[in-house]
């Protein structure tokens, strides 16, 4: 039984959104094999990567309404005061924006950064420039959620990237969310922006690796001040 449990704990579930893509990669691999056998193995490697891309592991989310949890796996690419997108309706004043950039090897299932109720979902068509660029927040295709919490309205924006061409959100307005709960997915490289109101302090640094549903991005009501870090 210990061996069975070890295998079960090692294998990461694949999100259902990835099933058809994995099937397509697999079928294409077989077809390529008829043309030239080595292409089969290349196709199988790409199929394995596709399954890895759509992985959906369980996460242990801190239970604390004063914490803002990372909505995505990836690298913290920006911590700045920025005016939120107009479609969110969060006003013209700058808010603290923490951005997490996902490359094609990161898990792309998106999770709620806070507990609350979705008051608005706003999709906006746009470009597909590199999601690491600051202008991607305003120029790229995106889907924004406004979550009402005890600390005020918090914006979460799914942003398409250079490769990403499909933003998926399976929640609706007036739906309740728990911190760490899955709410969407972006295919093949992208970025998540979190817009936070006054009274919050960052708990991450630029370049830090974040884990969706686990890493604390920011904290409300803390007198500790922002995080100071150094590269070891």
Automatic annotation (TrEMBL):
Q: Which residues form the active site?
A: 190
Q: Which residues are reported to carry the modification Pyruvic acid (Ser)? A: 190
Q: Which reaction does it catalyse?
A: a 1,2-diacyl-sn-glycero-3-phospho-L-serine + H(+) = a 1,2-diacyl-sn-glycero-3-phosphoethanolamine + CO2
**Where does it primarily localize?**
membrane
Q: Which Pfam families match?
A: PS_Dcarbxylase (PF02666)
Task: Give the keywords, sorted.
Answer: Cell membrane, Decarboxylase, Lipid biosynthesis, Lipid metabolism, Lyase, Membrane, Phospholipid biosynthesis, Phospholipid metabolism, Pyruvate, Transmembrane, Transmembrane helix, Zymogen
According to the UniProt record, what class of enzyme is this? Answer: lyase
Per the record's keyword annotation, is RNA-binding included, yes or no?
A: no
GO CC aspect terms:
plasma membrane
- Post-translational modification (record): Is synthesized initially as an inactive proenzyme. Formation of the active enzyme involves a self-maturation process in which the active site pyruvoyl group is generated from an internal serine residue via an autocatalytic post-translational modification. Two non-identical subunits are generated from the proenzyme in this reaction, and the pyruvate is formed at the N-terminus of the alpha chain, which is derived from the carboxyl end of the proenzyme.
Q: Which GO terms describe its biological process?
A: phosphatidylethanolamine biosynthetic process
Q: Which GO terms describe its molecular function?
A: phosphatidylserine decarboxylase activity
Cofactor binding, per record: Binds 1 pyruvoyl group covalently per subunit.
Residue spans crossing the bilayer: 21-54
Report the leader peptide range.
none
Q: Where is this site: Cleavage (non-hydrolytic)?
A: 189-190
Essential cofactor(s): pyruvate
Subcellular localization is given as:
Cell membrane
Q: How does it sit in the membrane?
A: Peripheral membrane protein
Pathway recorded for this protein: Phospholipid metabolism; phosphatidylethanolamine biosynthesis; phosphatidylethanolamine from CDP-diacylglycerol: step 2/2
PANTHER family xrefs:
ARCHAETIDYLSERINE DECARBOXYLASE PROENZYME-RELATED (PTHR35809:SF1)
Function (record text): Catalyzes the formation of phosphatidylethanolamine (PtdEtn) from phosphatidylserine (PtdSer).
Quaternary structure?
Heterodimer of a large membrane-associated beta subunit and a small pyruvoyl-containing alpha subunit.
Under the heading NCBIfam families, the entry gives:
PRK05305.1-1, PRK05305.1-2, PRK05305.1-3, PRK05305.2-5
Membership in a protein family: Belongs to the phosphatidylserine decarboxylase family. PSD-A subfamily.
UniProt protein name: Phosphatidylserine decarboxylase proenzyme
List the source organism: Ensifer adhaerens (Sinorhizobium morelense)
Q: What is the lineage of its organism?
A: Bacteria, Pseudomonadati, Pseudomonadota, Alphaproteobacteria, Hyphomicrobiales
Instruction: Point out the gene that encodes the protein.
Output: psd
